[in-house]
Amino acid sequence: MRLSTVILPIHRWNEGQKIWRRAEDLGFHAAYTYDHLSWRSFRDEPWFGAVPTLTAAATATESIRLGTLVTSPNFRHPVTLAKDLMTLDDVSGGRITLGIGAGGTGFDATAMGQTAWPPRERADRFGEFVSVLDRLLTEPVVSCEGEFYSAVEVRNIPGCVQRPRIPFAVAATGPLGLKVAARYGQAWVTYGDPRGPGDVPVEECAGVISRQMDKLEIACAEIDRDMGELDRILLQGSTAERPLDSVDAFVDYAGRYAEIGITEIVIHWPVPDSIFDTDLDVFERIAGEGLAQLS
After folding, report:
1. Residue 231's closest CA among 218, 213, 244?
2. How many CB atoms lie within 10 A of CB 120?
3. How far apart are CA 54 and CA 52, in angstroms?
4. Cβ(170)–Cβ(131) under 8 Å?
5. 37-86 pLDDT tens trace
6. Which residue from 80, 135, 148, 270 puts its CA 20 to 30 A from 158's CA?
7. What's the whole-model pTM score?
8. pLDDT tens digit string along 181-209?
């Protein structure tokens, strides 16, 4: 199992760069950031762009993987996003992972003046978005006309450093999203029951995700793909579980999810006076000692 972190894009870079470097020093597999225009309780607080933040992080670090967790079509278009991602992959020397999901009905969904899409349209847009993005990142010239997204003679040369393209980590729990993950993903992402992860009793949380993985396996089987080819990423922080209270609590938590087949856990870098207010010393001990106790 791998351990990664997500660093919110809330810090001016003279301070933020220290956190990204520290994440690398602590040995995290990857450091991700959220790709939103604003987010929940942080809406009226500092919040910087994901792509510039990751570009800066790529120049401030050497080996840690970097990525979004997650990007969505809410305010992105595959043509412009593909160009940014190709450039990020080049700047980082091939260390970028694109976490991508359908998006929700939060601030991003209406910030550009549109009406929030209903669930079925959001799922359909997501499928088309990912398929177009896949082509843009693997083919030197792309023209296509879809229901929602089009590209006309678009060039992405020289292409990604990683071949055939950067890996996609697809966040999905519904049937259409799981089909996207099975077809295009190199990893699958979940954070628990999307209907209300914080309401699920602690003893039932792993079972919820195990059942999601059963559905993912079915989606993979439908296209003759081995689910074992996909990494399975759990983003911690939405359920009632409290694995960051101590090293022992984390070891118990990680052990439960290792048993059901999760291959990477992502924990939030501490943010004081927020829902991610975790003791930094305990957090760093988890990074240094937690996974070692599982081996």
Report:
1. 213
2. 10
3. 5
4. no
5. 999 999 999 999 999 999 999 999 999 999 999 999 999 999 999 999 99
6. 148
7. 0.96
8. 999 999 999 999 998 999 999 999 999 99
